[in-house]
């Protein structure tokens, strides 16, 4: 997938057990896992990781940063699709 400038992008979904928290296109995702912090860029190899309590930072294609606080759950990366499935997740201001 690519944006209007033809640069590769990620499709990102951040969901909690009860709701969709954020969805959109991004150029970078950074999350805290139980093994440490991980950065995801377009073309990343497939990953399945356990989330640690902390922030998930998303740099959108517009250059904005979206930050969500996530507790428990998993991070999945495959085919430029990043899914954060957390027991609890809320957008930070």
Q: Could you state the order of secondary-structure elements as H and E?
A: EEEEEEEE
Q: Identify the CATH homologous superfamily.
A: F0F1 ATP synthase delta/epsilon subunit, N-terminal
The neighbouring-strand order within the major sheet is 1-2-4-6-7
The geometry reads as: globular
CATH architecture assignment = Sandwich
Number of strands: 8
Spans of at least 5 consecutive residues whose pLDDT stays below 50 are none
CATH class reads Mainly Beta
Oligomeric composition of the shown chains: single chain
At the third CATH level, what is the topology name? Answer: ATP Synthase, domain 1
Count of all domains: 1
Features:
ATP Synthase, domain 1; 93 residues; mainly beta; 8 strands
Task: Give an overview of the whole structure.
The protein has 93 residues and is an all-beta fold. The protein has one domain: Sandwich (ATP Synthase, domain 1). It has strands spanning 10-16, 20-33, 36-40, 47-60, 65-71, 74-78, 81-86, 88-91. Strands 1-2-4-6-7 form a five-stranded mixed barrel.
């Amino acid at each position: 997938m690519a944006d209007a400038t033809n640069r590769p992008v990620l499709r990102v979904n951040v969901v909690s057990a009860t709701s969709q928290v954020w969805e959109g296109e991004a150029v970078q995702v950074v999350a805290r896992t139980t093994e440490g912090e991980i950065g995801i860029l377009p073309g990343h190899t497939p990953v399945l990781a356990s989330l640690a309590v902390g922030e998930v930072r998303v740099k959108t294609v517009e250059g904005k940063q979206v930050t969500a606080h996530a507790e428990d759950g998993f991070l999945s990366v495959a085919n430029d699709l990043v899914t954060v499935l957390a027991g609890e997740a809320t957008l930070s201001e």
